[in-house]
Amino acid sequence: MTVRDALRAATATLSATSDSARLDAELLMAHALDMEREAMLLGHLDAEVPETFDALVARRAGREPLAYIVGHREFWSLDFTVGPGVLIPRPDSETLIEAALRARAGRPPATILDLGTGSGALLLAALSEWPDALGLGIDRSETALGYAWRNAERLGLSDRAQFRRGNWGEGETGRFDLILCNPPYVEPDADLSPDIADFEPDGALFAADGGLADYRAIVPQLRNLLVDGGVACLELGAGQAAEVARLCAEQGLETAVARDLAGHERCLIIHN
Predict the structure, then answer these.
(1) 77 lies in the same domain as 17
(2) Which of 151, 155, 200, 211 could form a disulfide with 185 if both were Cys (CB 3.0 to 4.6 A apart)?
(3) pTM above 0.85, yes or no
(4) Domain region containing 22
C-alpha cells in the first residue's frame, strides 16, 4: 500500500471520531515518515507506508490527542514538546500574548512571571518577543515543569527562563513587570470531549466553585507580585469575565477585557 492509499483508508477510519480526519491522517503519516507534512504531500505520496503508521492511527481513533501522539504542538509560531501530564497549548491562549504586547507597547517588560506555566508556552512565547526580558514559570506539577525546561532548552531560551514548583504565587518574593496566567477554569461537571477529558491532566483543566476557585486564589496575590504600573494577563473561561473583574476590583486593580479571534472574552488585562 502506498502513502496515498493509506491516507485514504486512515481518513475513513478517523472520520468517526475526528472533525479533521484527513489532516490528522496526514500529520500522523508525516510523523511516521519523520518529515514535514508539506514535503510528504509534494513528493512522497507513492512511497511505501511505514510499519508504525497503523498503530498511530489506532491511537488517534481511540481519541488520544494528536499532539500527544506526535509529541509536539505549535504555539505563537514556536514548536513545543508536549505529552501526557501537560496541558496542550491552544490557539485561544495566544490572546494573552497579543494583549500583553499591546499593554506593554513602548515599555518592554524586564521581568515576566508565568503562573501555572505547564509546557512553558506563555512564558517562552513572551520571552521570544522581548529578548532582554528574564522570566520565571511556576507550576505545581513536576511533569509539566519537565516539559517546560525541555522546551526552554530546545528554543534556546534556557538562559533567560527559570522554572520552579509552587502553588501559584505563594512564597514568591519577587515583583514582575508582566504576569501571564492560564489557570484551570472548567467546571468539574462540564461535558468535555473524550480527547480532552480522558487524556489531559484534570489539575490543569478543572476548578471548583463553578470554575472560579483558582481565580479566587490568584487575584489577591497580584498586587504583591506586580511592580507599580505592572500588568497581568489572565485567561478566562466562558462567562467568567465579570466575576473575575469583580474580584480584581475588590483588590483595587483596574481591568479590561480582550477577546479572542472568535469574539469570546478570553483575557482579563489587569493593571496594578
Answers:
(1) no
(2) 211
(3) yes
(4) 3-62
